[in-house]
Specification:
By secondary structure, the chain is mainly alpha-helical. The protein has one domain (2-125). Helix content is 77%, strand content 0%. The protein is built from six helices and no strands. It has helices at residues 2-18, 26-34, 40-60, 64-82, 91-117, 124-134. Helix 1 packs antiparallel against helix 3, helix 2 (26-34) packs across helix 3 (40-60) and helix 4 runs antiparallel to helix 5 (91-117). It is elongated and about 60 Å long. The two termini are 27 Å apart. 19% of the residues are buried.
């Protein structure tokens, strides 16, 4: 059963790692800027770094609670700036943005759980604790 936790950590974190390179593309920065995000040329790459560090922290189980907070810091503004479905007039776009908004709320919920419970078994932090207890 302990392997389920690491698989869950990996699956949860993949979405943040898979989008990393997009945070450095001009096309992404231009789109984010068009959504009203100030200083997008700085904030978009920075947000990619924050999300990736948080995701890797959770996958490895190293300071996973802090990593979860990094993801929350990333997700809250992204959710409300980039997926503001209430601003859309086109019904199809509204539905897509609402789906992404709800997805992000779910990710925030999972990150909050990790920020409270930590990484669980098969993590660097647990291995360090076990090694220290043996001494």
């Amino acid at each position: 059963m302990k392997y389920l936790v690491i698989v869950g950590r990996i699956f949860f974190s993949l979405i943040f790692l898979m989008t990393l390179m997009g945070h450095f593309k001009q096309q992404t920065i231009d789109y984010v800027s068009s959504q009203g995000v100030p200083a997008a040329s700085y904030l978009v790459p920075l947000s990619g770094i924050i999300a990736s560090v948080g995701a890797l922290s959770i996958i490895l189980g190293y300071k996973a609670k802090a990593g979860a907070w990094l993801l929350i810091i990333f997700l809250i503004p992204v959710t409300f700036y980039m997926h503001a479905f209430w601003k859309e007039t086109d019904p199809m776009k509204m539905q897509m943005q609402m789906a992404n908004f709800m997805k992000n709320l779910s990710l925030i919920g999972a990150a909050l759980l990790i920020s409270y419970f930590g990484s669980g078994p098969l993590s660097i932090d647990k291995e360090k604790t076990a090694a220290n207890q043996e001494k």
